[in-house]
Amino acid sequence: xxLLIAKKNIQLTTKIDxxxxxxxxxxxxxxxxxxxxxxxSNSFTIPFNRQELADFLSVERSAMSxxxxxxxxxxxxxxxxxxxxxx
Length: 87
Prior knowledge:
Layout: H1 2-19, H2 24-39, E1 43-45, H3 50-57, H4 61-73, E2 77-80, E3 83-86
Antiparallel strand pairs: 1-3, 2-3
Helix pairs in contact: 1-2
């Protein structure tokens, strides 16, 4: 039981860390960086579709999608659906 509570606490702390970022880009990069670390790879699959990711990061989907496109244009990331690569 204690392990379960500790795991939930870590997940909540991590989410708060992502949400504390000021810009949509910072929130996305924070989340994607943590997923890359968790997967020990720059290429990984996230467990969310676009709407779920926007909801998780507390941003509007259209703003998040536009920022993802800009990040890809700036050669920070590549992505297809929920498969991402940090460059």
